[in-house]
Amino acid sequence: RILAFSPSNARAGTPATPPCRALVADEPARASRIGRLLAEGVGCDVCVPVDAVAALDAVRRGSFDLAVVG
Fold first, then answer.
1. For residue 34, what are the contacts with CB-CB under 8 A and spacing of at least 6?
2. Among 68, 70, 18, which residue's Cα sits nearest to residue 47?
3. What 3-state DSSP class applies to 11?
4. Residue 44: phi, psi to the nearest 5?
5. Of 30, 25, 10, whose CA–CA distance to 56 is shortest?
6. Is 15 helix (H, G, I), strand (E, B) or coil?
């Protein structure tokens, strides 16, 4: 599924395609925080696992529309 994004959606806080589920697993923690904020800004529910093992487990258990992995 492709999510629509436009600056007007981000400014208004309107979800791009509800419900959008995003997995953000990146190092360092600052990069994960930025990815989480961006995904939330377009209306995604965000999963931020604590480490790589938890990220793999989340992928196995869940379904995500977007994954940001570093």
1. none
2. 68
3. helix
4. -85, 145
5. 25
6. coil
How many whole angstroms separate alpha carbon 59 and alpha carbon 63?
7
**Is 0.85 topped by the overall pTM?**
no
What's the CA gap between 14 and 20, in Å, rounded? 12
Q: How many residues can be counted in the chain?
A: 70
| 17-21 own/partner pairs: CB under 8 Å, 24+ apart | 17/43, 17/65, 18/43, 19/45, 20/44, 20/45, 20/65, 20/66, 21/45, 21/46, 21/47, 21/62, 21/63, 21/64, 21/65, 21/66
CB 17 within 8 A of CB 4: yes
Q: pLDDT of 8-49, one tens digit each?
A: 445 455 555 457 899 998 888 888 888 899 888 888 899 999
